[in-house]
Hints:
By secondary structure, the chain is an alpha+beta fold. The protein is built from 6 helices and 6 strands; from the N terminus they run E-E-H-E-E-E-E-H-H-H-H-H.
Amino acid sequence: MVKIEELKFDERGLIPAVVTDYYSKKVLMLAYMNAESLKISMEEGKTCFFSRSRNKLWRKGETSGNYQHIVSITADCDNDALNVEVVKDGPACHTGEESCFFNKIYESEQFNEFSIDGLYDLIKGRKTEKKEGSYTTYLFEQGIDKILKKVGEECTEVIVAGKGGDKAETVFEISDLTYHVLVLMVQMNIAPKEIITELAKRHVVDKKVKQQRMK
């Protein structure tokens, strides 16, 4: 375990802190800490930084309510930078964006990584900015009953494929079901992080039950 006095702060007594989302692992923001703000962060379990422009401490969420609850703080190999994993109460950026890093400069088409969040955003875009000929837009135009019907149909197809023991077919049908569930989520304004948070709660409960059984 690295101690605060072992960290390498710069000439101003600061150390960069990269804040990442505990669930999605997405980079949320880059801020700076000094020894005092780091100590406060550890004691309170919420992020506290040092503002270089205002030359004073500031607690994330003290005005917006978008607190960041700390899961872990890790130093890099040189002890001169920190990674702070958090569970956030709201957007990390003052603009209202989930992350401060949203202004793309370059993106490789070859290595463009797929993500559920990315697919969710694409589906959401088909609802807000309707595209002619888009199946997703068609589902939103038909409404909740049509969407629920398709979710039901895909559930049945997953069962049939699974019962048949065909792995490739089951993967294909699960993918169809996942897509239609995401459409339902967009329709009902349910974000992927809400599902992840619910699953995480169950994971914690499951661990507590196991610990109780071991006693």
